[in-house]
Write a structure and sequence with these properties.
This protein is mainly alpha-helical. It has three helices and no strands. The longest helix has 32 residues. The radius of gyration is 46 Å and the shape is rod-shaped. Keywords: Membrane, Transmembrane, Transmembrane helix.
């Protein structure tokens, strides 16, 4: 192929490209809209985290309330009974010591 034929072929290609309407929808460098958005399910994640921490907070809260109820249900005279038992054991121990020293 000679240079004249090659130059004519290249000029015809350039003219056809310039005359044709360039369709921007087929442009490879154009920004394309993705088929799905990358953060479509972000609200599910936020909902999951909120439910997890609310469950954790409620568990701690109800555990605290239950422990307070257990303390309030305790016998109010329990401490007095324990004090009396301790005093009795101290007195009995003292009496045993006295008996051993006296005999």
């Amino acid at each position: 192929m000679n240079q004249t034929a090659l130059a004519a072929l290249i000029s015809q290609c350039v003219l056809q490209l310039l005359e044709r309407n360039l369709d921007t929808r087929k442009n490879a460098t154009e920004q394309k809209e993705p088929q799905y958005k990358p953060y479509d399910n972000a609200y599910f994640f936020i909902l999951f985290v909120m439910l997890f921490y609310s469950f954790l907070a409620l568990t701690v809260f109800f555990g605290y309330v239950r422990s307070k109820k257990a303390i309030s249900k305790k016998d109010p005279y329990q401490e007095e009974k324990m004090k009396v038992q301790v005093m009795c054991s101290i007195v009995l121990t003292a009496l045993d010591c006295v008996k051993q020293n006296c005999s």
